[in-house]
Amino acid sequence: MLLDHTQDKIVLLDEDGTFTYASGAVERILGFTPDEIVGENAFEYVHPDERAAVRHAFGRAIESDEFAEVTVEYRHRTADGSWVWLESRMSNLTDSALDGFVVSSRDVTDRVEAERQRAETASHLREIAAVSSDVLWMFDADWSEVLFVNPAYEDVYGGSVSELRGDPGTFLDAIHPDDIPAVKEAMGLLSEGTAVDMEYRVNPDENYAHWVWVQGEPITEDGEVVRITGFTRDVTDRRRRERQLVVMDNLLRHNLRNDLNVILGTAETLAAEVPDAADRTAVIRRVGDQLLETAEKEREIIDLITKRQDTERIELRELVDECVEDVRERYPDAAIEVAERDAVAVGGRAELRSAVIELLENAVRHADGEPSTVTAALRRTPEGAEIVVRDSHSPIPSVEADVLRGDHDMTDVYHSSGLGLWLVYWSVELSGGTVAVESGAERGNEITIRLPRNGD
């Protein structure tokens, strides 16, 4: 029969649900030959959980006095005892040429399983969103409809979820008036397809005392923005700690600088008035200058870890040349060579310049009183770039090498070189890079900064 060549399973059922005919597709879909199921009751092959509903739909169709067509989904037992999902369609049309009612079925197992997995994933996401302290949100492309927002919105923004859904414009009412222009600009960028990352103040009920960090992403289909989604995280505590850190830094640095200027000035006066004390006053001036240098490095570190800055495209050949020239000017007697200067750009923080200068200066200062050459190299790599600083000095102490690699706590760093090495580590880490340190058994060090490429 022609029906034997169809992709769908075609069967005929009598009024009791007994198979009177089965097409060849039965074997492909269910594993039974047509002869094995003809004469069997179809409902006995339906999963118990759906059997009553399938029987009811069949009975409703055949008992109707008017034309009726029904579609049902259910699990059907296969020859090996497993189950497949079928979508079956039948009507109460029949004639004397057909020995029963025609039922056409197709295998929808893959679709049903995919829908089940999506539903399960959606359920898990709803559970996560319900307990998350971050605000998870989704708007349509023009911000006129809230597609999703979790309960955390009320705690963070101080507004009502139901009011937000009724009028998405109330979202702006929860933002500090001074920050609204920047937020509106960010909303426009998102609608145009540009991701945003920003911080602003919210919650008028608490005098806008909450700082939030927001990341938003446009969702596009066929090149057009159709939805905007993102999260909002309360970063008030972090902002407060940063502010306290900056205040304490300013106070301590101011007092330290003033006191050291008094000490250094007194040492110069002593050296002039008491020539025999020149050696001792020289020690005072040297240590005082080191303390001032430490204060400056501390200032750089505070700026590095408290100021929000985006990475920028950095041409490393220019950066290395500038750093080498800078250190040569500060240490005119030092021998600094550049071995390689591959052209390569990376995405990094501006503080990378301070990191390279620190490594070069550290190598120059620790020359052990012997003539030596410090070598800098810039190499392009498949992953990005490497900046290498080599010297022939005594091996770097393990505690300082651990600082550069990020394997050491701050508790043991009490000297300016250690603080400078932390500046190197953090500058590189915030640029997405790493630092490697190799030292010879008796002499020689090689410090390598590895940075990811920026797409040049």
TrEMBL record:
Q: What are the protein's GO molecular function terms?
A: protein histidine kinase activity
Cross-referenced Gene3D superfamilies, in alphabetical order?
A: Histidine kinase-like ATPase, C-terminal domain, PAS domain
Domain (PAC) ranges: 70-120, 196-247
Domain named Histidine kinase is located at 251-455
InterPro entries registered for this protein in UniProt: HATPase_C_sf (IPR036890), HATPase_dom (IPR003594), His_kinase_dom (IPR005467), PAC (IPR001610), PAS (IPR000014), PAS-assoc_C (IPR000700), PAS-like_dom_sf (IPR035965), PAS_fold_3 (IPR013655)
**Database matches in NCBIfam families:** sensory_box
Q: What is this protein called?
A: histidine kinase
Per the UniProt record, the source organism is Halorubrum salipaludis
